[in-house]
């Protein structure tokens, strides 16, 4: 692996249930500092692709073929041990509903300390890492004394991202990371994603159905329909001048794109 190698390289990924192909990604790479979005209507196969990339379909009835390489380690067919070592320290998942993804019985501080301990980070180093991650996501450390239900949705989502940053994840996969949040908080989380990509060189793979959001943060976009990629390319090109009628229909369904058209937050 050299610095220019992509963090994530997907080739010929196909996921079937009972012989029916529900998702496929022929070719996808995400480099350091890059945000790639997968868009499409409900049921187009976005989340299935994301979960396969994270190795989360390994113990299910899904038939996964192709190759998913995260920092040079193959995910498809990998042992649970290999997947465990990748999760957290190399790749992390940020879910749609942050509060639901955080253990409700633990204060956030205990939760983050426990995650670090599980990844072999000692107490002395943990304090520095937590403080650095909380600064990165602009959260006050006082929040660590609270439980997940005692913080706002936006704070919980920032905390979920802080957890990934703290563990050193270089690839963060996010499934609809802002759709459970209200509009102003959505913008804050989008700005955070973009900033972490730029400042920390984190690679992001974001599943979304909201094209306005995608236009604000993504460098590249992949448009999926019925389990197949119909269009892919730089965000400005795909959303600014779509070649496929399905992409055009998705764009037509967006009530308002931000003034000035596509561009980063
Ligand atoms: N465990 C499963 N068994 C059988 N089919 C499944 C399973 N999980 C997902 N599917 C099917 O795979 C297809 C793609 O679903 P997926 O959740 O990936 O779509 P999506 O684009 O992420 O949609 P949404 O935005 O609603 O989450 C759907 O037709 C779904 O019914």
Bound ligands: adenosine-5'-triphosphate
Q: What ranges have pLDDT less than 50 throughout 5 or more consecutive residues?
A: none
Number of strands: 10
Give the spatial strand order of the biggest sheet: 6-7-8-3-9-10
Mean pLDDT, as a whole number?
91
The profile of the biggest β sheet is:
6 strands, mixed
Helical coverage, percent range: 25-40%
| Number of DSSP helical runs | 10
Class by helix and strand content? alpha/beta
In what range is the share of β-strand residues?
Answer: 15-25%
Q: What integer value in Å does the Rg equal?
A: 18 Å
Distance between the termini: 31 Å
Characterize the structure shown.
It is a single chain. This protein has 265 residues and is of the alpha/beta class. Helix content is 37%, strand content 24%. It contains 10 helices and 10 strands. A hairpin with a 2-residue loop joins strand 4 (63-70) and strand 5. The chain starts with 7 loop residues before the first strand and ends in a 13-residue tail after the last helix. The model has no long low-confidence stretch (mean pLDDT 91). The structure holds adenosine-5'-triphosphate. The site of adenosine-5'-triphosphate (ATP) has 12 residues, from strand 2 and helix 1. InterPro entries: AAA+_ATPase, ABC_Ni/Peptide_Import, ABC_transporter-like_ATP-bd, ABC_transporter-like_CS, P-loop_NTPase. It is a peripheral membrane protein. This is ABC transporter ATP-binding protein. It is found in: Cell membrane.
